[in-house]
Design goal:
heterotrimer, A alpha+beta (537), B mainly alpha (307), C mainly alpha (308), B: 307 residues, mainly alpha, MetI-like fold, 10 helices, 68% helix, C: 308 residues, 12 helices, 73% helix, signal (chain A), peptide transmembrane transporter activity (chain A), SBP_5 (chain A)
Chain lengths: 537, 307, 308
């Protein structure tokens, strides 16, 4: 019932000190023990779906711990997502195919051993090797020899244990050779799958999973499944993104609503996203005051129109649907201004973004929509499929209603019980109508918005879109070593999408998070995560 | 007695055999005079009318969405206001009656029917048959309702299928009944165990009456009352259960409108748009109350002791 | 008596096998792919799926899978989840929490339900009777998640009387409000049952005799009436304990309680057959033991009942 009394006692002196200093905010100091560098910060978390290994973490829940426990060669600046060298001393290439990488000396794993070049090479080889069953294995696919350690055909046995494209050149230097030139590879190196692993891991992988040892700003303390993951500051950390508190408590919640209640009551310090309940009518602004955080997320929401569904491979129908969605009104009402209308297929925060690529097709125009619908000759029912949880349902229902009422056709929202069931339909190409396609970038590059979703055979090309011209441009851009020149070609490819409308861009999310009164400052980054080095107690 | 009667809701009426005709006739005469009965019957009639001809109450399409009205408060135009999608809540509540009533009433009937038959058989025949049926019931009763419903509903509907409205309603009703019958069974079994020991039943058995006749003529009238109490409350509980299933994403789904669907739609907006919850919840409560009051009145009227 | 208990215990064995088999088959019969959506927005690599399928014997026929599972279970090994966590450990941390929650729910349900039932059963129909009827029915007709959200927001966020969520320790004090929410569903039923029971027993011969003997009203109500009327209610409460433990899925979600309800829900969503079977089998066993206990208690309270 009542709050734990001991904590109230602990908070009392703090409150007195604050009052004496004349800056008493009168807040509900509940979870922060003592402030400053020695305090605890608790953040919202979800139960990791896999072991806390870099190459085995593909979702936010596990990533919160992994990105605090480990660091890689590169990191991204929270404000503009630009990559900068963190553990890398230099990354050199002349042809975007062979990369010479040197790492900084004197960096340590949490067990005291030094981080060396071979820790990177071993970790990447481990991640890619098929029998190790790492979820992010495919991130290594550009490296030469990947097909030997992880054959593309199911059932084939790997013919090698290590990738031929990785060579250790010294304690602090190694070389990476790719299958083919890939200009974005360097940017990709900041992704969590590319973090190093200590020698201790290779001695006892199973035991390591229970008590991971990383090289990041925080070290592992304990984990209780479905309850919390506790980390504490690693004082030997050499990076510039050191943390300014002692303990990090990742509290596991089964719903955002429950977590938000805790945030308001001061039992939780940080949430990177807010539940729909808080966003309606800008409730969160009243609740949190100046403790609201906004950021630009690198994501984009589209409605995919699969090419395999009979009757949907029809450009006029695609145009009609896109013209019939009142993006402006839906983002303002149902989405409560936490999204803005999308005007293209890449997020507006990314380098290489151009406004209005979608052009006239993404502007609500009922008359034109009806014309195109007439021309399409489509008869029958339109549907939009998605998982219904997590506030996914409401905007799509509204989009469906907008389409239905503009075109005079019936449109139904088809819910899947959960994300897994929804992805199963996507992966096996079994949608019977349109579907939600929300994409958030794994690494900040325009390439990550195009290749996976729209390239022929792309890993998430669920709609089976294929345009040889588009593929050719992507291949050309990949092989262009000069970054700016490459972006120009990616932009040409992006512009092509407006001709085919493989999917209908709908909205672009503004990230909204919040932090409790226990914290003085916090920052939300483009990956929808707390920038833990920015927490101030 | 060989086994304890688990739920002994009523002592047997001491009056013994009463002629059926006069019993029901008396009951009816008595009921007509009771305000509780009249009020509850009136409410149920109105609700039934809503379910059968909703267009009598509103001319607005319950699925028509106009975002300009999103979250608008109750007003002269729309008595119950509008929901997030700008749909008229009054129209939705009226149109939602049908699905809610169908789910609530048919699952209660089915539950009581399955439970009573198994319960009376278990109670009357006893011995190994009783043990078998009781333990079988225990498996279903021990299985959490939500778990069972999730398993049944997701097994029946592969993610690739897009089942029709009727199919989903039938499935929801069936899963509720399949998971709830053990309660009705236990009540019926206990009542039967008690009634079996009554003198007139023993007498009837001694006279060589067929089990069928004993069960229907003598046991059933005495065991119906406790099951009835359960059934009337169950109607309400099942309408609520339908909402929980919709909330979990496995129950009724749009374009079907039901009170449960409306309540689950409101779940994310309780703090900011309370009228989305208020009206469907009020309708559920009033309907449930009416059913319970009706059940109460009928039971009292059928029970000669209370006269 | 002893033979009766022994018989009931022996009956647990087939029920155990029946339940594990039914649950195991049902969970794996759910036509979803456990590895869809596991790797975020991209499909999982083929190598990952292949290794996991081999590890969990998913290539075998269902019946073979079941016996392999059963074989390990009988040696006390509950298996592992897809994320590599020990199911035994998960159950042992979550179970006590849910047991506490269900106990509190039953207690609250009993106190409020029986209290209200006695009060209304003793008096005739009137204002109080209607009030109790309406308020308990109001609770029953509201889905659990609504009652939970409203109490959480009002008591936790607005009035600061409770912490909105339950901490990891999940002490009895913290669980009172969630327990109330959980118990609210059956409260109406307990109240109605008590009321019916009392109303009927008021006219029973033993009560009339007691009154005729000139015993004070308090004694008649306390000893004769209550004791006899409470028996059926007790049965309901006993069996409800088991049902509440499994029914806590939504309540646990709202208050973020780390109990078995949430584990079951996530388990079904992720198709963690091993986890779900382990938990549900234990639930059914608890349920059976609770109903056995109730039957024995019954005999203690009602001397007319004999076991042979």
């Amino acid at each position: 019932m009542r709050r734990a009394r001991s904590i109230t006692w602990l908070a009392l002196p703090v409150a007195l000190v604050l009052a004496a200093a004349g800056c008493g905010s009168g807040g509900d100091t509940n979870s922060a023990g003592s402030g400053g560098e020695s305090g605890t910060v608790s953040i919202y978390g979800t139960e990791p779906k896999a072991t806390l290994l870099p190459a085995n973490t593909t979702e936010l829940g596990g990533n919160k711990a992994v990105s605090a426990l480990y660091v890689g060669l590169l990191a991204y600046r929270p404000e503009d997502a630009k990559p900068y060298n963190l553990m890398a001393d230099s990354i050199k290439t002349s042809d975007a195919k062979v990369f010479d990488i040197t790492i900084k000396k004197g960096w340590k794993f949490h067990d005291g051993s030094e981080v060396k070049a071979k820790n990177y090479v071993d970790a990447w080889n481990y991640g890619a090797y098929a029998p190790n069953a790492q979820q992010a294995a495919s991130f290594f696919e550009n490296i030469q020899g990947y097909a030997d350690v992880n054959p593309p055909k199911e059932g084939d046995k790997p013919t090698a244990q290590t990738m031929s494209g990785l060579k250790v050149l010294g304690d602090y230097e190694f070389q990476v050779t790719l299958n083919a030139p890939f200009s974005v590879f360097q940017t990709k190196l900041g992704f969590s799958a590319f973090y190093p692993l200590p020698d201790a891991f290779f001695k006892d992988p199973k035991g390591f999973a229970d008590k991971p040892i990383g090289n990041g700003p925080m070290k592992f303390v304990s984990r209780t499944p479905n309850a919390d993951i506790k980390l504490t500051r690693f004082d030997d950390y050499q990076g510039e993104n050191k943390v300014h508190f002692k303990d990090l408590d990742i509290k596991i919640y089964s719903s955002q609503e429950a977590a938000y209640s805790d945030l308001l009551a001061g039992n939780l310090d940080f949430m990177e996203a807010l539940p729909p309940n808080a966003k309606v009518a800008d409730k969160y602004k009243a609740d949190l005051g100046d403790h609201v955080l906004t950021t630009h997320l690198l994501g984009i929401s589209t409605i995919a129109i699969p090419y395999y569904v009979p009757g949907y491979n029809n450009l006029d129908l695609r145009k009609a649907i896109s013209l019939a969605i009142d993006r402006d009104k839906i983002t303002k009402t149902v989405l409560n201004g936490s999204y803005v209308p999308a005007d293209g297929w890449i997020s507006s925060g990314i380098e290489g973004y151009q406004p209005d690529v979608c052009g006239e097709w993404c502007k609500f125009d009922p008359a034109k929509a009806k014309d195109y619908f007439q021309k399409s000759g489509f008869t029958g029912k339109l549907t939009i499929a998605s998982n219904a949880d997590g506030g996914r349902k409401e905007p799509l229902e509204a989009a469906c209603a907008s389409i239905a009422q503009t075109l005079g056709v019936s449109c139904e929202f088809v819910p899947s019980t959960n994300f897994g069931a929804f992805r199963q339909l996507a992966d096996s190409h079994q949608f019977t109508g349109m579907s939600r396609m929300d994409w958030s970038a794994d690494y900040p590059s325009i390439e990550d918005f195009l290749t996976p979703i729209y390239r022929t055979g792309g890993s998430s090309n669920d709609s089976l879109y294929s345009n040889p011209e588009f593929d050719k441009l992507l291949a050309q851009a990949d092989a262009t070593a000069d970054k700016d020149a490459a972006i120009k070609i990616y932009q040409q490819a992006h512009a092509l999408l407006a001709k085919d409308l493989p999917s209908v861009p709908v909205w672009d999310e503004k990230g909204i998070g919040g932090f409790s009164k226990n914290l003085k400052a916090a920052k939300l980054n483009f990956q929808r995560q707390a920038e833990i080095s920015e927490f101030r107690l | 007695m060989t086994e304890p009667s688990e739920l002994q809701l009523s002592e047997a009426p001491p009056g013994g055999l009463t002629r059926q005709g006069s019993l029901w006739g008396d009951a009816w005469r008595e009921l007509r005079r009771k305000p509780r009965f009249v009020i509850s019957a009136a409410i149920i009639l109105v609700v039934l009318l809503m379910a059968v001809v909703p267009s009598l109450f509103t001319s607005v399409d319950p699925n028509f969405a106009d975002l300009d009205h999103s979250r608008a408060l109750p007003s002269g135009d729309a008595w119950f206001g509008y929901d997030l999608q700008g749909r008229n809540l009054f129209a939705r509540t009226v149109y939602g009656t049908r699905a809610s009533l169908i789910v609530g009433v048919t699952s209660a009937l089915l539950t009581v029917l399955i439970g009573s038959v198994i319960g009376i058989v278990a109670g009357y025949y006893g011995k190994w048959l009783d043990s078998l049926l009781s333990r079988f019931g225990d498996i279903f009763a021990g299985m959490p309702f939500v778990l069972g419903a999730i398993v049944i509903l997701t097994t029946l509907n592969a993610p690739t299928s897009n089942p029709s409205q009727t199919r989903i309603i039938v499935q929801v009703v069936l899963s509720i009944a399949v998971l709830s019958w053990p309660v009705a069974m236990r009540i019926m079994r206990s009542a039967t165990l008690v009634a079996k020991q009554l003198d007139y039943v023993k007498a009837a058995r001694g006279l060589g009456a067929s089990p069928f006749r004993i069960i229907f003529r003598h046991l059933l009238p005495n065991t119906l009352a406790p099951v009835m109490v359960y059934a009337t409350i169950a109607v309400g509980a099942f309408i609520g259960a339908e909402a929980t299933l919709a909330f979990l994403g496995i129950g009724l789904r749009p374009p079907v409108v039901s009170w449960g669907v409306m309540i689950s739609d409101s779940s994310n907006y309780v703090r900011t748009v309370p009228h989305m919850l208020l009206f469907p919840a009020a309708f559920v409560t009033i309907t449930v109350l009416a059913f319970v009051m009706l059940g109460d009145a009928v039971r009292d009227a059928l029970d000669p002791k209370s006269r | 008596m002893g033979r009766y208990i022994l018989r009931r215990f022996l009956q647990l064995i087939p029920v155990f096998f029946g339940t594990t088999f039914i649950i195991y088959t049902l969970v794996w019969a759910i036509p979803t792919d456990p590895f869809a959506g596991k790797c975020g927005q991209r499909p999982c690599p083929a190598s990952y799926i292949e290794v996991m399928r081999a590890k969990f014997n998913l290539g075998d026929p269902l019946i073979v899978q079941y016996f392999k599972y059963l074989g390990r279970l009988l040696t006390g090994d509950f298996g592992e989840t897809f994320a590599g966590l020990s199911v035994g450990k998960l159950i042992s941390t979550a179970y006590p929490v849910t047991v506490r929650l269900a106990l509190i729910a039953v207690l609250i349900e009993a106190v409020i339900g029986i209290g209200a039932g006695v009060l209304t059963g003793l008096r005739n129909k009137g204002f109080l009777d209607n009030l109790v009827l309406v308020s308990t029915l109001f609770l029953i007709s509201l889905p659990v998640f609504v009652t939970g959200f409203v109490l959480q927001i009002v008591l936790g966020v607005q009035w600061h009387l409770i912490s909105p969520t339950v901490s990891r320790a999940a002490t009895f004090g913290e669980l009172i409000v969630p327990g109330f929410v959980l118990g609210s569903l059956s409260m109406a039923y307990v109240a109605r049952l008590t009321r019916t029971s009392i109303a009927e027993n008021r006219h029973a011969d033993f009560v009339r005799t007691a009154i005729a003997k000139g015993q004070p009203t308090k004694r008649v109500v306390g000893i004769h009436l209550l004791r006899n009327s409470v028996i059926p209610v007790l049965t309901l409460l006993g069996t409800d304990l088991g049902a509440l433990m499994g029914g806590a899925i939504v309540t646990e979600g709202v208050f973020n309680i780390n109990g078995i309800g949430g584990q079951i829900f996530r388990g079904i969503q992720d198709k963690e057959g091993v986890l779900v079977t382990g938990i549900v089998t234990l639930l059914v066993l608890v349920y059976l033991l609770a109903s056995l206990l109730v039957d024995l208690l019954y005999a203690v309270l009602d001397p007319r009942i004999r076991y042979d």
